[in-house]
């Protein structure tokens, strides 16, 4: 007995192809939905930022020296190249440099909807996985890059702080501020340790980063590219801020701007606000005031134009790169 009419092998193959095609179509539709939702969030945040008069950088451009804005924009572009090197340098496998650069641009676009640069990390992990690298190893490479970037950030912070003679003891918060900071750190630590799923996830990332690093020790050239790339990302951001400060006639030295940028970016990234909008601007302006002794109001247009060059302008190429990689199924 048979449960239905017999089908020819050709018909069975056709049915299977139609079934796979249906799954593919559903996957494509889901990616389009995700893209549209992300675009809607980005458009909403951009419009919200523009409608807030105090956060609109366009009027500040009228008072800026355009000559100094050129190196600011170029530094932002070179920072993208540095991020590309930072990604491929911590991946022992061969990765397309062109698509890696497009992934970094896509990260600019996705970061607007995510706090603390989580969007770039997610995009890089997805890109590496789509490039044929196992998911765990992709996560390990991205985590290793972030760990190295954090270490370099701290070393540069101490180095530039020593250069300008920063008094670390005098700048430490006291009283209620110190207590609140300690409680926040304790709460974060308690969550990381107390939530089993999060604790296992963090432990797994650390375990995976170790073997990945040992593997890269046998490829010192790649490891050097990754470290130099991470260093370039930070220094190009500092150069962009320094150029913006000169565009408004500020005479602060490069080490002072570097120290303020390193402190401000760290504080701004720690606040869970999508794209660091508002939080990063305020933290950077306040850090510049403390470091240079110049009123924060003087630094507001500098920070707004700096954010325009390094955050808002890259959104357009980032959006194009994001759509291109999705169309090519590289994300």
Automatic annotation (TrEMBL):
Protein topology in the membrane: Multi-pass membrane protein
Protein name: Lysylphosphatidylglycerol synthase TM region
Annotated compartments: Cell membrane
TM spans (from-to): 33-51, 66-91, 138-164, 176-198, 223-242, 304-325
Coiled coil, from the record: none
Keyword Lipid metabolism among UniProt keywords: no
Keywords in alphabetical order: Cell membrane, Membrane, Transmembrane, Transmembrane helix
A cellular-component GO term for this protein: plasma membrane
Short name of any one Pfam family annotated for the protein: LPG_synthase_TM
Cross-referenced InterPro entries: L-PG_synthase/AglD (IPR022791)
Predominant location: membrane
UniProt keyword annotation of Transmembrane present: yes
